[in-house]
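Thanks for the sequence, V.! I ran SAM-dependent methyltransferase right away. Repeating your input here for the record:
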Amino acid sequence: MGLGYELAYRFKITPWVKAGRIFGDQIEGLLDPCDTPPGKVLDVGCGTGDHAIEMARRGWDVTGIDTVQLALDKARSKARKAGVDARFLRADATDLEHTVGRGYHLVLDVGCYHGMSDADRIAYAENVTTVTEPGATLLMFAFGPGHRGPLPRGASRSNVERTFEAWKLTSDVDADTTGMPGPLKKADPRWFRLVKR
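Predicted structure:
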């Protein structure tokens, strides 16, 4: 999967960047009033940093991670131009603690988990649990399950609940697909909100 994303960024074939911006605009409305800065936020699979930069603008202490160096370089450049302080690290979501440390209050995942294998999902959940504080929030965007060609395989509510045993699923809502192309609308895009027990 990493090589595919590496090549996609290199050849500028990144349709998820635009889609991520549209879905990212929905983040503010999905946060609970208790999810307020200052606090530490981890943006998993941050890509070119749009969500991380927006969270930094809102006063969060932000760390964004991705496995694609080119994407991280763009994220750092965008953060400098935006005049915000955000940390961008090359890290794998299945091995977080060694790279990002602990103490996170909020984790954003706009399209990372739903493309992972079952084994990686389990490792990811364990790592997110390790690096977050009790009561932390995980806000996850995912397509519904199903095979749709090049789109990620997606994730169901029951899969998320089973995998994140140390968390309570507090909401599962349809993502607003206004302005999105047909294939993305048909992928049953959802927002899951979980709170660490």
